[in-house]
Amino acid sequence: MKPANRHDPLSPAHQRQPSHPDAATFLARHTSLAIGDEDWGDPAAPARLRLSWYCTTAAPPPALVTSVRAIVLRGDAVLVVREPSGTPYIVPGGRCEPGETAEATLRREILEEVGWTLDAIQPLGVIHLRNLGPSPPGNPYPYPDAFQLVCQAHAIAHHPEAMVYDEFVANSTFTPLAEARLLPLRPGERALLDVLFAR
Question: What is the pLDDT of residue 7?
């Protein structure tokens, strides 16, 4: 996931694009911690998405959930992943495969991405993704609304041999909380981290 790039408000055409009714119902019950816009996908033709971050244990509509992520802890340290550019993030994870449960997705993705097995997985929040442009041709994902689950989890054992190459992952290290909070994280990541460690 790449750093947020602030964007102008929705154009009138995109404002007219109705939200999925189930997404609207879910979001009406929650208040966002942070909002930011990002370009995802092909750099030559990126999709502009608006990400809204929420702290909640409530599950969004299952049909709109595309990915599962986690803040991974080990003692009082948090796993910080860096992209090849050096950009840090603290919510590794990825897309659900057909027939997979959210927990199975998270365990697989974390093992493949950073090589760690997990324990004590608990829901922490959700990220609402609002596509600000037209639906791309052949888009297999919910449009214009989708959700990513964010969990908290504890690392158990490291298995680097299980890792699968990921172009967005250069390395990962456990970093003391005080140091992690000084990193240039996205506001939504920082907000969830603060909520987690305030408990």
Answer: 35
Q: What is the mean pLDDT of each run of 10 residues along the chain (199 residues)?
A: 39 57 95 95 87 97 97 96 96 96 98 97 97 87 96 97 93 95 95 89
3-state DSSP assignment of residue 107: helix
Peptide bond into 98 cis (omega under 30): no
Q: Give the pLDDT score at 199.
A: 74
Number of domains present in the structure of the chain = 1
Residue type, 111: L
Structural domain including 161 reads 60-122+147-198
Q: Is residue 184 part of a domain?
A: yes
Q: What is the CATH number of the domain that holds 70?
A: 3.90.79.10
What's the CA angle centered on 55, arms 52 and 58, to 5 degrees? 105
Query: How does DSSP classify residue 75?
Result: T
101 Cα distance to chain centroid: 17
Candidates 104, 53, 106, 85; CA nearest to 169 is 85
Residue 7 lies in a domain: no
